[in-house]
Amino acid sequence: MASSRFLLPVTISTVSLGIGSWLGIHYEKKNKCVATCDKVWNLPTANCAVSTTTKSPVAIGNVGEIMKYGYPSLTNLKKHGDFVLSYDRRNRIPNWVFEHLTAQKVAYNDVIDRENCQFFEDNDVHVYFRSTNADYYKSGYDRGHMAAAANHRTSIETMQQTFFLSNVAPQVGAGFNRDIWCDLEKYVRKLTKKYKNLYVCTGPLYLPRQERDGKQYVKYEVIGRNHVAVPTHFFKVILCETDKGEFDVESFVIPNAAQPEKAKLNLYRFSIESIERASGLLLFDKIPREFFRNINRIK
Q1: Of 120, 225, 227, 245, which is the most buried if we count CB atoms within 10 A?
Q2: Cα–Cα distances in Å, from 33 out to 38, 186, 204?
Q3: pTM, whole model, 2 decimals?
Q4: What is the pLDDT of residues 238-274, one digit of tens each?
Q5: Are 132 and 123 in contact (CB under 8 A)?
Q6: Which residue is catalytic, options 26, 145, 152, 233?
Q7: Is 152 part of the annotated catalytic residue set?
């Protein structure tokens, strides 16, 4: 793993060339979070909760609050517990996952333990378009939550639903999922102490890089019998709403690779427009951009 870290700056610089000036990549990593970072990655099949698949906005429970400020897209929408996602049937991972977070939802509860949760396939996804745990067995990748388990501590049932494999994507373990990505998830939970509401959109990216022939290519690995796609990067965009109804926005893009230990989260900040162009999504489109009080203000 150490050798890959030395190669990382070169990799990131080529990616930056591939996507132009609106997306370059830096690095980071911090404390280790040995949460549920399994090295076998999976996708949808459900055993422990009820979800819904539809081609238009789902009107179930608290979906109206979660998606209050707009849907990034309307493809294969599903509702799980306290989050909403769009499922990518071709790549067998989410297009995006949306959460509404508050201090109460993320408050620590020692009775609700993720060690009691297991990853499940999502039976609401057609068998042609879902993967199994076997796809990720000895793949070298963690089953990376898009909606983090620790963000949903109101009940064991709510936390368990984050283990649906339709909420999961293959992530590099050491240096990424268990480190920098975990740090970002912790940072998001920390923001709930400052803001009344957080609206968080998380998802994969497949970014081009320049090869030796001077041309740019989008290349990504697939794993398992079902060819589950391994994203080149992941994004997270956080809309922070104050008690006065004001909005701050923070947005991040991190390569799906081991990151240097001493890099800072601020190095991974990118504009919302860059993420929208790279992902094909529109984020928080119900709020005019001029209404955002601060965008990626370094604190």
Answers
A1: 120
A2: 12, 9, 21
A3: 0.81
A4: 999 999 999 999 999 999 999 999 889 999 999 999 9
A5: no
A6: 145
A7: no
